[in-house]
Amino acid sequence: MLVYLQMLETAEEKDKFARLYTLCRGKMMAAAMRLLRNREDAEDAVHQAFLAVLENFSKISNVDCPQTTAYVVIITERKALDLLRARSRHPEVELDPEKPGLAVPPPEGDALAAALARLPARCREALLLRYRHGYGTGELAKLFGMKRGAVQKLLWRAKEALKRELEKEGES
Fold it and tell me: What pLDDT score was predicted for residue 106?
């Protein structure tokens, strides 16, 4: 946390960030672990998310509100999905696991996570907030600045798009 605090100028900002770190780090780590299924990669995603939060830290007015928590969790999930995309574009070299001292490549990624990664950002955010974090349609409407009916339509379209992506991969 000291690295992040050094990036801030005032004591007030440092206190505010320390509260945010304490409140959200566990949720961020859980979100990254669900997608990446690897502790080291999840820690990388959380670190990248905190750096992104620091870039826009002045936009956060209240650390204790659900919108802030949703904001940092979404950033974390985006960073985790970026890592998944990078992993799929640059697969690791196959190494013999029988030879000592050589790293064993991670198991293949989750089909659901890969399909989510291919969805448009708005659809992915809506699905993750609704079904991973339990946000209701009304809460999503407030977060996205949309009407409730528009959010329902967005969720329906997102589910259909996810279904199509999974069918492309032969999953159901």
Answer: 32
Sequence-ordered list of residues with C-beta below 8 angstroms from that of 24, at least 6 positions apart, any chain? 68, 69, 72, 73
pTM of the model: 0.53
Angle at 158 between CA 152 and CA 160, to 5 degrees: 105
Going along the chain from its start, the domains and CATH numbers come out as 1-87 (1.10.1740.10), 109-172 (1.10.10.10)
CA quadruple 51, 52, 58, 64: dihedral sign: negative
Angle between helices 66-89 and 11-36 (to 10 degrees): 50
- Are 46 and 29 in contact by the 8 Å Cβ rule? The answer is yes
